[in-house]
Design a protein that fits this description.
Blueprint: E1 11-15, H1 21-31, H2 37-49, E2 60-65, E3 68-78, E4 88-97, H3 105-112, E5 118-122, H4 130-135, E6 139-148, E7 161-164, H5 175-186, E8 190-195, E9 200-210, E10 214-221, H6 225-230, H7 232-241, E11 246-251, E12 260-272, H8 286-289
Parallel strand pairs: 4-5, 10-11
Antiparallel strand pairs: 1-2, 2-3, 3-4, 5-12, 6-11, 6-12, 7-8, 8-9, 9-10
Helix pairs in contact: 1-2
Amino acid sequence: MAVSKSSPSKIRARQIIDADIPAVVDLLAKGFSRRGRPYWQRALERLERHPTPAKYPKYGYALEVDGRIGGVVLLIFTTPRANANRVTWCNVSAWYVDPAYRAYATILTYPALTHKDVTYLNISPAKHVQPIIERQGFVRYTDGQFLAFPLLSRAEDTQTRIVSGAEHPDSRFDQADRDLVRSHLEYGCIGFWCVTSERAYPFLFVPRLVRRVVPCVQLIYCPSIEDLVRFARPIGRFLTLHGRPLLLVDSNGPVAGLIGHYFAGRSPKYFRGPNRPRVGDLTYTEAAIFGI
């Protein structure tokens, strides 16, 4: 007699392997229908190419129910070269369990969060998921987003030049920054250098639409928020010329030196682990690798 979905005889969490990819894509397309199957196919292809640190899962974990995939959680592990302390980060992404197996969701999430030396990020939890991850030990490190019009910024470094991220800047720069920019250009990010006589500063953004209508960009990386404010005018000119005059920045309030509006409670970011993330750095997360 067939075993019903409500009472599976064999259920376990295990690492996702290459052979699971079609079933994982199907399940994610079902759970996040707004994205569509091509989006998740591309996401898994990029995870396959991503240089996951040794000993960590390449894709994440699957909830296997009677030999079939009933739930998934994608995990993006990375140890950035620019990180002097070699801290490992993990972006918890695309957590979905078929409604028939929701009672077993903790079996899936437990192994995903067991690495005590890793700092976990959750940068896009749905509102109904936020209380759940808070019970799992996640805390907010940003409470909302600031929508800025950088071209209106009062400050300007008149000697700053914008140089494409694909080019080699003619001022001092860190090779780790160069590698960072190159890898994120391959993901489809907008990347460039703000070049001064002292050095070149890397900036990365991902194109997106506010309310699915208004073109803008979301900040993925800047050396510091102070540098973003310092170079806001030339950045604003560049973005405006490319049809995206608005800039979204994760924050905990209005950003001093930028003109715009703060939206409290919009897209809060969470972390769990030994290292508090820096505001202004979403590199090697779903926002950069999968796209928004």
